[in-house]
Amino acid sequence: AIHAYIAQDNPATALRVAQQILRRSGQIAAFPNSGRRVPDYTRDDVRELIEGNYRIVYRLLADRIDVLAVMHCAQLLPIDLGEL
Q1: Is 17 exposed, middle or buried (0-12, 13-18, 19+ CB in 10 A)?
Q2: How do beta strands 54-60 and 46-51 pair?
Q3: CB 80 within 8 A of CB 65
Q4: Is the per-residue pLDDT at 82 higher than 80?
Q5: Any bridge partners for residue 66, and if so which?
Q6: pTM of the model
Q7: Residue 60 near residue 45, CB atoms below 8 Å
Q8: What phi and psi values does residue 72 have, to the nearest 5 degrees?
Q9: Under a CB-based contact definition with an 8 Å cutoff, are residues 53 and 73 in contact?
Q10: Handedness of CA 20, 69, 47, 78 (dihedral sign)
Q11: How far does the signal peptide extend, from start to end residue (predicted)?
Q12: What are phi and psi for residue 64, nearest 5 degrees?
């Protein structure tokens, strides 16, 4: 959705942003604790990495990592994690 939205105005930028977000997601897979704890939540298992103007919000589980959201940093996170 992010790629499609940006591509309406600038396809080259859309591709670059999508590649950067995917690269950063690879960092999460390799180093799950590299993201900071999300200050909006009091949980240690919910973390985020910032890539440019976007935040990748994810949850650390015992056997996997769930990406909860990829969103613009200007957007507010919902109070309830279930809304992500």
Answers
A1: buried
A2: antiparallel
A3: no
A4: no
A5: 59
A6: 0.86
A7: yes
A8: -65, 140
A9: yes
A10: positive
A11: none
A12: -165, 175
Contact 58, 46 (CB under 8 A): yes
Residue 81, pLDDT above cutoff 90: no
> What was the pLDDT predicted at 40?
85
User: Structure tokens of 28?
Assistant: 């999460």
Residue where the block lists tokens 């994690």: 81
Distance separating alpha carbons of residues 31 and 25, to the nearest angstrom: 10
Looking at residue 30, its amino acid is A
The structural domains of the chain, ordered by start, are: 2-83 (3.30.2310.20)
Question: How deeply is 47 buried, as exposed, middle or buried, from its count of CB atoms within 10 A (0-12, 13-18, 19+)?
Answer: buried
